[in-house]
Amino acid sequence: MQVVFDDSRLIPIRAKVEAGERLSFEDGVQLFETSDILALGYMANLVRERLHGDTTYFNVNRHINPTDVCVASCRLCAFGKKARDPKAYTMSLEEIWHKAGEGYSEAVTEFHIVGGLHPELTLDWFCEMLRGLKLRFPKVHLKAFTMVEVAFLARRGKITIRETLERLRDAGMDSMPGGGAEIFNERVRRIICDHKIDGNEWLETARIAHQLGLHSNCTMLYGHLENDEDRADHLVRLRTLQDETHGFVTYIPLAFHPENTPLQHIPKTTGFTDIKNIAVARLMLDNIPHIKAYWVMMTPRMAQIALKFGADDLDGTIVEERIYHDAGATTAQGLRRGELLHLIRAAGRVPVERDTLYRPVERTESTFTVLV
Ligand code: V47
To answer: Do the domain assignments include residue 336?
Structure first.
């Protein structure tokens, strides 16, 4: 294909991409540095279509955030609150089970469950929550708890991470979302989230989860204090773990939303940065099957454009979202299944409803079947 690259420094990288060779850390830095967005798009789309053709995934899911009470005070976050804050909330188990059923009319296939690091909720309480959800919604996949929440529950319960994961898995946790990875570079991590586990602990928790047969997603938070080297390093570290475990299913780049955080002086990310993070991820993460353009975070319009820049997934219907909306997101709380189909088709792609592990889903109005 005849594509003229404005940035001639990308020509050797193009040769590697066309030959299907792995890109280096230095290549990653160069890709983040360039503003030749069309060159990035050409290369990322080549890889995306090699892997998935026109297929574009979405799911019918519901987010549940049992509590926003959090002992950490991460500067990146507008969601977590102290227990004494009058605006803080913690749902009872009955409320969680009830909330899960709201919006069930579209027959969700996944509950995405994450929350703050609550000082009093125990591992037993969370296991009961999972068991209660499984009892009421046996067909729904429970994608629950970030590596950060698992490490916190382990430390509080004075048990190992392995045992914590085993108990959550045995109570019904089917897989894990990708949050909490933020940025692995320790200097930046200490500034934006010094109360969280460090990058090595995040990776080690993911390693153990994958060893136990649990799949997970992975993320990177960009658009705060990190530089291009930090971003490339983060992706290489995820790729290295994936070579070992093959447990990551999807990578989701997450744009920092500064509103209502102590870092609100930082400008919001731009369209170029958001698209670049999708494209560079597709090029660097050659062993992670899927790249998600999370529409809540990018807006549906930008997420749709991202489908030509390396992304093959838009995430889901969500129904109710708190983490990004507390930090100033102006997108809708949820999208209907039909709206996701429209976005994908209007981008010239072929929509496929998936379950959490990317198996196609066939549905009637009120129920669904996972096709294996
Ligand atoms: O871990 C918190 C990030 C994550 C802010 O696995 C913020 O399918 C931007 O991980 N600005 C939670 N980001 C969201 C997440 C996620 C979302 C969608 C799908 C999946 C998946 C995972 O949100 C947190 C943190 O990295 N975050 N505050 C903020 N102010």
So the answer is: yes
